[in-house]
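Chain particulars:
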Amino acid sequence: MPGLSPLDLTGLIGVALFLLPQTLFFAFYSLLGLYSKRYSEKRGLEAYLGETVSIIIPVRGEPPDYVEMALKRVSELSSTVDVEVIIVSDDPPEFLEYLRRLVDEWSRRLKVYYVWRSEPRGFRAGALNVGLYASTGDYVYVMDVDSFFDPCLVLRGVSLLKSSERLAGVVGRWSVWNKGSRLSEALAYNMEYVVNVLFKARSALSLDIFPLGTGTLFKASVLKELGGWDEERLQDDMDLGVRLYRRGYRVEYIDSCRVYVEAPTRYSSLRVQQERWAYGATDVLLARLGALLRSPVSLVSKVESALFLGQYTVVLLLWVGFAVTATVSLLGGVDYTAKYAFITGAWLFSQALFAAVETYTLGAGLRESAVNQGRMAAVTVALSVPILRGVAKALARARQEYKRTPKGLFERRMRGKGVSGELALLVALAVVLFLVALRKYVLLSLITCMYMVSVVYTLIRWPRDIIGLK
């Protein structure tokens, strides 16, 4: 650019990489949050006529009481809906006897079967495909053991699916049922807004809806037409969404029917989940971008879907930009976040806008919003470590092991392993803060301090999860 020295140009690029992707992210999802108010649900659908719904429950290393609780919840549904349950187990042989006894006990009240895969293949998708081709229902619902759903999702979902040949699935509204910890409470608050953005606003704008791993009722015939779930993809729901769009199918959303899911109560569990999601979303973007661009949907929908799949790359750009900005600022003797204050100002404004819109659309009190937004902001900075790991593996096309999100007893037993990426991030931020503070770079010091405090908060709240302390 004319008039810019190489250092100034590098500083501009660094600040742009650091702050602009975040700015666009917050601004875009603020606008979607406001637009979610225009959502309206379809009415006047034909009645449910007793069609069979096959519920597939994939299990691998799940607490036994969770499996039994899932069957109990489905049995309550069976008085309203004709259901069959297919449990697909990827557990070791010693779990098989327990599963056999459990199915025998519940088969008196419920049509329930089990399939044991002695050689689990294809991640979770492989188990789902076994369940799909063992099922007999016209409709299929995938249910995680830690979730349950309103009967209306089936009653209204089947009716909606019958209304259009090109409609492949119906998604219910995700809600967190366990709010007994600081983390799960913050996740529940955040999820309410995320649902507004990803489902209500998309529906109002006629953008494509991605199916959910649990919480989507499908036409079995469409799933079989596609050959089931792709066993090469870790994030099977996002991948399935793109493949449906490519075939000209769509997914719709019902806000009034809820799907209740368990949120992680520990940072260690959330870390496992987010690394898997970051890898999975980025992997689907790389593997299916061509299919998405060739799909018969609008250009706006293609762009929005691609941005959604690439959401975790914002974290990669953030830290690359931060490293460039800090390095060039120290070399050039200039605080580039202050020199290009118009970018920094836009970034600050977008965050304030996002917080205000989230509070407004959820109708939450100021204290509730401030507490939960603060918790999520802090934890998100620490989570950038596993997210970066997941994104990097996907970009390198490295194979990622499918790790389930620990629940119940398994979650309570988890501990950190001593030295962690979060500690390394904390040390790096402390070094940068010391150096930029010596130069009296006020704005860059404040931003660095903000990130550092976020990691410190996470470490204080969950020391056992990060470094193994009791």
Observations:
- The chain has a mean pLDDT of 91.
- Residues 6-35 form the longest helix (30 residues).
